[in-house]
Specification:
Helix content: 40-55%
Shape: globular
Radius of gyration: 17 Å
Oligomer: single chain
Distance between the termini: 18 Å
Order of helices and strands: HHHEEHEHEHEHEEH
Structural class: alpha/beta
Length: 246
């Protein structure tokens, strides 16, 4: 998943984002395969998406859902922008497989090759998928997501995008402010979990028979932002709210 607007114009280094040399090389290889060997790329991502889909359904069938906060999952307001940390995305996907939101859900997925399988997986799970990459791609995605909100959808965004972890970018608050819909902070986690400590977000992946915990914060509405100070204040509020629940 991805955030809309990169912080500091996407100047964060690979080190700041937690990107290893191996990850950087893998991204280059996958980009080459997607561009030059398309049948191999699309076959591989289809197989990967199906495997993860079956696994998500298996975990959802055996897991226990625990909800807390302002309301129980999946009763999020719609239309709304739902923001969570990237590390909680696997747990939220399983929660959605267990109990789907009543409103149509749209999700933002990065436009890089590794995002291709995730986009297919999310479509298999019933999401509307919006892809983004880079600064201009982020603004195009913002327009598309705004249209989804007009149609009454719930839009899900990872607030820290592609890193650094647990540092909110401007996308979620900007989208909520521009469209006049509430921003809903959300935290998702699982126990026990398979934690990928080597990844930039230290993602926690649910195991069969695990407990999936979802906390839903109070919705907050934002007036149109008039200056950088108001934008930063909203971003900081979201970051502090999500970090208090992590």
């Amino acid at each position: 998943m991805a955030d809309l607007v990169p912080r500091d114009s996407e100047k964060a280094s690979d080190k700041e984002r937690g990107r290893s040399v191996a990850t950087h090389v893998l991204d280059k290889v996958l980009s080459f395969i997607r561009k030059r060997v398309r049948p191999l790329h699309w076959t591989g991502l289809a197989v990967t998406a199906v495997i993860f889909y079956i696994y998500a359904r298996l975990v959802a069938f055996t897991a226990r859902l625990i909800t807390s906060g302002e309301t129980d999952w999946p009763n999020v307001p719609a239309p709304s922008v739902v923001a969570l940390w990237h590390a909680g995305a696997p747990s939220l996907l399983v929660a959605i497989a267990m109990r789907k939101t009543k409103a149509r859900a749209a999700i933002l997925v990065a436009g890089d090759p590794r995002g291709d399988y995730l986009a297919l997986l999310c479509r298999m799970m019933g999401f509307d998928v919006v892809r983004t990459s880079g600064v201009h791609g982020g603004w195009r995605a913002l327009t598309e997501l705004a249209e989804k909100l007009k149609q009454g959808a719930c839009v899900i965004i990872t607030a820290d995008g592609d890193g650094p972890a647990r540092t909110a970018k401007f996308g979620a608050t900007a989208l909520a402010s521009a469209t006049g819909v509430p921003l809903v902070p959300l935290s998702a986690d699982c126990h026990p979990a398979l934690q990928q400590s080597h990844k930039w977000d230290a993602a926690r992946n649910p195991l069969p028979f695990s407990s999936i915990s979802v906390w839903i914060g109070a919705p907050r509405a934002f007036e149109p932002f008039l200056d950088r100070e108001s934008i930063e204040s909203a971003r900081k509020w979201l970051e502090e709210t999500l970090n208090r629940r992590s």
